[in-house]
């Protein structure tokens, strides 16, 4: 008879704060002591660790990852699986795929989460990656948050429908009060995003510079990442240092959202954005690019304004319209909040993950050795 909670080994390309990491933290905190967790960040960054409930049983094993040393990494990962003896391996997105290869023959059940794609796969799937997913994930349980990704996994990766689960990201509505924080001065436009190229925050800054004097606004950027210095330089070059505030990572995102009049996510690529969901839950009108799972979140534009990617003028025009139309902002905010209530309640999502963690079966077979090694070269 089991006397300890099941141990889940979670692999992330990074555990810096982002959508996949926030989703995991939210679910882990909600499930409490029902599971133990071990977390590995392939890049050694663990900033999202600060969001975890300190009462959870969580460890952060040190496992050497050497970029480009695929065979060496596989040996190290297999050794870690033997030492940790997890009840389940949970991998996240392409950056963790080597672990799917390393676990072959270990008997460890495998759950793979796929949220979307980086810029290298934004416009087309890379054939080698398609083959790797097709071979390495066909005996795993694969979770996707959107209809778009579910169809891709079934039709392009050719994964069995019986192994696919579509579970949307969820939001704890109790954390997101809809009462606005009153403020004087210009309308506040806000965004919450990792400062990476695919989030395209530079486009938002350029759009702000195009706003007419008759529609003043200030921009609050919440988040951090490798593009912070580049964005700071862009803000200075455009003479926007008094209008744009970069505040870095922030624990109280719900509180910040209450101070926003408009939320913007100008990404070039997205899966199912947690920041958009949280803005919707907080009753903040959303403007976002029509990429990835965002159109589905916003119900085709009925719960937020969708704009084309990579067109600064289109984004600026959308902001001008909302800045001058308080009624439209209230309409979008109300419909967005109701959509989250109807479809993205966190407790329902957490219950579904708990069932997966408990009930995912041991794989019924693995790729042949030759197939597996074709993914490792």
Any overview of this molecule?
- With 377 residues, the protein is α/β, with parallel strands linked by helices.
- It folds into two domains: 7-169 and 347-373, Rossmann fold, CATH 3.40.50.2000; 173-343, Glycogen Phosphorylase B (Rossmann fold).
- The chain contains 14 helices and 13 strands.
- The strands form two sheets. A seven-stranded parallel beta sheet has the order 3-2-1-4-5-6-7, sandwiched between helices.
- Helix 1 (19-31) packs across helix 13 (346-359) and helix 6 (201-209) packs across helix 11.
- The longest helix is centred in the C-terminal third of the chain and has 18 residues, at 326-343.
- It is globular, with a radius of gyration of 21 Å.
- The chain starts with 6 loop residues before the first strand and ends with a helix.
Which architecture of the largest domain would the CATH scheme give at its second level? 3-Layer(aba) Sandwich
- What is the subunit organization of this protein? single chain
Tally of separate helices: 14
Basic shape:
globular
Spatial arrangement of strands, main beta sheet: 3-2-1-4-5-6-7
Average pLDDT reading: 90
What portion of the residues fall into strands of 2 or more residues? 15-25%
In whole angstroms, how far apart are the ends? 42 Å
Please identify the top-level CATH class of the largest domain. Alpha Beta
Could you outline the blueprint of secondary structure elements for this entry?
Elements: E1 7-12, H1 19-31, E2 36-41, E3 58-59, H2 70-84, E4 88-92, H3 97-102, E5 110-113, H4 127-136, E6 141-144, H5 147-155, E7 164-166, E8 187-192, H6 201-209, E9 217-222, H7 228-237, E10 244-248, H8 253-257, E11 262-265, H9 274-281, E12 286-289, H10 294-297, E13 305-307, H11 312-323, H12 326-343, H13 346-359, H14 369-373
Parallel strand pairs: 1-2, 1-4, 2-3, 4-5, 5-6, 6-7, 8-9, 8-11, 9-10, 11-12, 12-13
Helix pairs in contact: 1-13, 6-11
């Amino acid at each position: 008879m089991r006397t300890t909670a099941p141990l889940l080994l979670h692999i992330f390309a990074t555990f810096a704060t982002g959508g996949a990491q926030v989703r995991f933290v939210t679910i882990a905190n909600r499930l409490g002591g029902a599971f133990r967790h071990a977390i590995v960040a392939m890049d050694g960054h663990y900033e999202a660790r600060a969001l975890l409930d300190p009462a959870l049983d969580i460890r952060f094993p040190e496992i050497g990852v050497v970029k480009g040393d695929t065979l060496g990494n596989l040996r190290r990962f297999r050794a870690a699986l033997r030492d940790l003896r997890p009840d389940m391996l949970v991998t996240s997105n392409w950056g963790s795929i080597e672990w799917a290869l390393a676990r072959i023959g270990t008997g460890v059940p495998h759950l793979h989460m796929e949220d979307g794609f980086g810029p290298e796969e934004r416009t087309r799937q890379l054939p080698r990656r398609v083959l790797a997913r097709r071979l390495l994930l066909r005996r795993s349980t694969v979770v996707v948050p959107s209809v778009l990704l579910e169809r891709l996994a079934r039709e392009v990766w050719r994964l069995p429908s019986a192994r696919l689960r579509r579970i949307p990201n969820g939001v704890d509505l109790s954390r997101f009060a809809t009462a606005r924080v009153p403020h004087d001065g210009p309308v506040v436009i806000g965004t919450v995003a990792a400062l990476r190229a695919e989030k395209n925050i530079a486009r938002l800054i350029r759009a702000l510079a195009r706003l007419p004097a008759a529609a003043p606004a200030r921009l609050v950027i919440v988040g951090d990442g490798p593009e912070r210095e580049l964005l700071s330089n862009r803000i200075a070059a455009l003479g926007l240092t008094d209008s744009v505030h970069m505040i870095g990572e922030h624990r109280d995102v719900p509180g910040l959202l209450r101070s926003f009049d408009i939320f913007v996510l100008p990404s070039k690529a997205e899966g199912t954005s947690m920041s958009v969901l949280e803005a919707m839950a907080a009753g903040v009108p959303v403007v976002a690019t029509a990429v990835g799972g965002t159109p589905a979140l916003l119900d085709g534009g009925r719960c937020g304004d969708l704009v084309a990617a990579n067109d600064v003028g289109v984004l600026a025009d959308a902001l001008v319209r909302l800045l001058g139309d308080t009624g439209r902002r209230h309409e979008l905010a109300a419909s967005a909040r109701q959509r989250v209530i109807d479809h993205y309640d966190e407790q329902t999502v957490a219950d579904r993950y708990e069932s997966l963690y408990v009930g995912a079966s041991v794989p019924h077979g693995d790729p042949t050795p030759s197939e597996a090694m074709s993914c490792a070269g």
